[in-house]
Design a protein that fits this description.
Number of domains: 3
Distance between the termini: 64 Å
CATH class of the largest domain: Alpha Beta
Shape: elongated
Order of helices and strands: HHHHEHEHEHEEHEHEHEHEHEHEH
Number of helices: 14
CATH superfamily of the largest domain: Response regulator
Helix content: 40-55%
CATH topology of the largest domain: Rossmann fold
Strand content: 5-15%
Largest sheet: 5 strands, parallel
Strand order of the largest sheet: 2-1-3-4-5
């Protein structure tokens, strides 16, 4: 069967090929009714424009790159959201793994593969050498959750501090006062913000932060296991542990179980992100759901508008909020269950 062309779409929609091209390239000044008619014709004919042909016809490659230093559940969710947004906009997503010193790898990548933009996740989004290299080449980029707001590029933000405070408040409402905290890796933008939210919630309840209840972490299962062993070995161990991400929380649950501290009977455990591990962990993990896929999709939207020369594109996307998801890994403090309080 012959491949469907832009001529077929134009004929089905009853418009010119130039109008179809303007719609597919998301250009302005096309009536909404005409735009919908063209898109409907393209869907009915199952028309997919060839990237190479579109690139030759204009200055865009219709490629967006997402470099990763590590393939994590967070990155997988971001990739899903970015991929869906790219498909909807007629773009292709290129995912590349790079070393932690990402500048050299990105230089080589950009030299061999022209892209219309870069989607940068932590920690790449905070690598100043990477930002310098992209700006020198004139490549637009959007950073997701950078360490601080700046005028460098576009950015997508989520309220990590507020979310960590909500989770800590949840544990406090359950009656826990000795709460351990597993930090994230140094250099990751979310790590200090989540720690700050945890400490702010404790302070609001008049609870002094205990350095013994802070454990380093790397957003992975192994560091979660190590953190659990460290925290549960203190003289007055915590009755709840809040880990900065779900992988480390899963490690906490596994090691605590080996040490005879079952969740949630004798130890409540909470995480952050709500990725796949939060569902498959036993018991299910109480966590903060971060809209990772939605944030990545919003970032793609900014890049597409920038590539199209949209001068009305916003400087940043609206801020995103996390939501509390309560599962079986947290429960009221044992003494509170036996006591007279009617709260959870």
């Amino acid at each position: 069967m012959a491949s469907i062309t832009i001529t077929d779409v134009a004929s089905r929609a009853g418009v010119s090929m130039k109008t179809v091209s303007r719609v597919l390239n998301q250009e302005k000044h096309v009536r909404a009714e005409v735009r919908e008619r063209v898109l409907l014709a393209a869907r009915e004919l199952n028309y997919h424009p060839q990237v190479t042909a579109r690139s030759l016809a204009g200055r865009r490659s219709y490629l967006i790159c997402m470099p990763l230093t590590v393939v994590s559940p967070y990155a997988v969710q971001a990739q899903r959201g970015a991929l869906e947004a790219c498909r909807a906009a007629g773009y292709h997503l290129v995912v590349e793994t790079v070393d932690s010193g990402a500048q050299g790898a990105l230089d080589a990548l950009m030299g061999s593969l022209p892209v219309d933009g870069m989607l940068l996740l932590p920690p790449v989004c905070d690598d100043l050498k990477v930002l310098d290299a992209l700006e020198a080449r004139g490549v637009p980029y959007v950073r997701i959750s950078p360490a601080r707001r700046s005028r460098r590029g576009l950015a997508i933000f989520v309220d990590d501090e507020g979310a960590a405070r909500i989770m800590t408040e949840h544990l406090l409402e359950l009656g826990h006062r000795r709460i351990g905290f597993v930090m994230g890796p140094e250099g990751h933008s979310a790590s200090p913000r989540r720690l700050k939210g945890f400490q702010a919630a404790l302070a609001a309840h008049g609870i002094a932060a205990d350095p013994e209840l802070l454990a380093p972490g790397l957003f992975d299962i192994d560091s979660g296991r190590e953190a659990a062993e460290r925290l549960l070995a203190v003289k007055d161990p915590p009755t709840a542990i809040f880990a900065s991400n779900d992988l480390s929380a899963a490690g906490v649950i596994a090691r605590a179980h080996e040490l005879g501290r079952l969740a949630p009977e004798t130890l409540s455990v909470a995480g952050f992100d709500d990725d796949l591990v939060a569902i498959i962990t036993s018991p299910g993990l109480t966590t903060m759901r971060q809209p990772i896929a939605e944030m990545a999709a919003a970032a793609i939207g900014l890049l597409v508008r920038t590539a199209a020369g949209d001068r009305d594109a916003p400087a940043d996307a609206p801020g995103f909020q996390c939501s509390l998801v309560i599962r079986g890994s947290t429960a009221p403090l044992a003494s509170k269950r036996r006591g007279s309080s009617g709260r959870r």
